[in-house]
């Protein structure tokens, strides 16, 4: 499989990259600087910016599926790049995309008419990141693409334990955290198995 990973230098993206290489997929990464890339052997590296359509087009050539583990970084890069990414995918005939979101954009159990970040379930003091991820969800939901958004709750650095819970559209009940390792494991599993098309998937211990 020809896989493009965005956010490959990040905490989750770097682990997804490791999984994809271990299974001998052809992996391309689009990074601002390859100096931050932990793994380079066997990787096609395109230096560029997700906010430039020409860079996205170059990185997407011959790609079957895209994994985006881009963070919000207190900017609008995530929501600004998504329309360009969708446009690029359609131009290059790419149908499948997985993104790493946040549990804030899952449905609230306590207040079914709103998202978790808008309800009393959320403990976050700021909603900026959730609003960015919500914009991505809304755009993907209207795109006609085969998308899946993996939505971890509190995300400490940690290795995979291999035991966790998932639920479509909701955070598993009483879920408190999930490691970066297990989140990456599930992203990669969904990449291969395609069990949750057009769904947000909550993940927690």
What is the N-to-C order of secondary-structure elements (H for helix, E for strand)? EHEEHEHEHEEHE
Largest sheet: 8 strands, mixed
Distance between the termini: 30 Å
Overall domain count: 1
The Cα radius of gyration reads 16 Å
Q: What's the CATH first level? A: Alpha Beta
Beta fraction of the residues? 15-25%
- How many E strands? 8
Mean pLDDT: 95
Structural class category = alpha/beta
Helix fraction bin: 25-40%
Verbal overview:
There is one protein chain. Helices cover 30% and strands 20% of the residues. With 205 residues, the chain is of the alpha/beta class. It has one domain (2-204): NAD(P)-binding Rossmann-like Domain (Rossmann fold, 3-Layer(aba) Sandwich). An eight-stranded mixed beta sheet has the order 3-2-1-4-5-6-8-7, sandwiched between helices. Helix 2 crosses helix 3 and helix 3 (77-91) runs parallel beside helix 4 (128-141). The longest helix is centred in the middle third of the chain and has 15 residues, at 77-91. The mean pLDDT is 95.
Q: How would you summarize what this structure contains?
A:
The chain has 205 residues and is of the alpha/beta class. The protein has helices at 13-22, 53-60, 77-91, 128-141, 180-193, and strands at residues 2-6, 26-31, 43-47, 65-68, 96-100, 146-152, 165-168, 199-204. The mean pLDDT is 95.
Write the layout of secondary structure elements.
Elements (H helix, E strand, L loop, with lengths): L1 E5 L6 H10 L3 E6 L11 E5 L5 H8 L4 E4 L8 H15 L4 E5 L27 H14 L4 E7 L12 E4 L11 H14 L5 E6 L1
Parallel strand pairs: 1-2, 1-4, 2-3, 4-5, 5-6, 6-8
Antiparallel strand pairs: 7-8
């Amino acid at each position: 499989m020809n896989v493009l990973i965005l956010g490959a230098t990040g905490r989750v993206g770097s682990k997804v990259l490791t999984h994809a290489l271990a299974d001998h997929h052809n992996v391309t990464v689009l990074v601002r600087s390859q100096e931050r890339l932990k793994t380079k052997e066997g990787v096609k590296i395109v230096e560029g910016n997700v906010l430039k359509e020409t860079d996205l087009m170059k990185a997407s050539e011959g790609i079957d599926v895209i994994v985006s583990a881009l963070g919000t970084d207190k900017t609008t890069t995530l929501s600004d790049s998504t329309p360009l990414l969708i446009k690029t995918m359609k131009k290059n005939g790419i149908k499948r995309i997985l993104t790493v979101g946040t549990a804030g954009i899952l449905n609230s159990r306590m207040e079914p008419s709103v998202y978790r970040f808008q309800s009393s379930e959320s403990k976050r003091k700021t909603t900026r990141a959730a609003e960015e991820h919500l914009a991505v969800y809304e755009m993907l939901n209207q795109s006609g693409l085969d998308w899946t958004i993996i939505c971890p709750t509190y995300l400490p650095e940690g290795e995979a334990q291999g035991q966790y819970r998932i639920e479509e559209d909701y955070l598993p009940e009483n879920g408190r955290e999930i490691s970066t390792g297990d989140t990456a494991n599930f992203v990669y599993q969904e990449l291969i198995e395609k069990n949750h098309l057009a769904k947000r998937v909550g993940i927690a211990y």
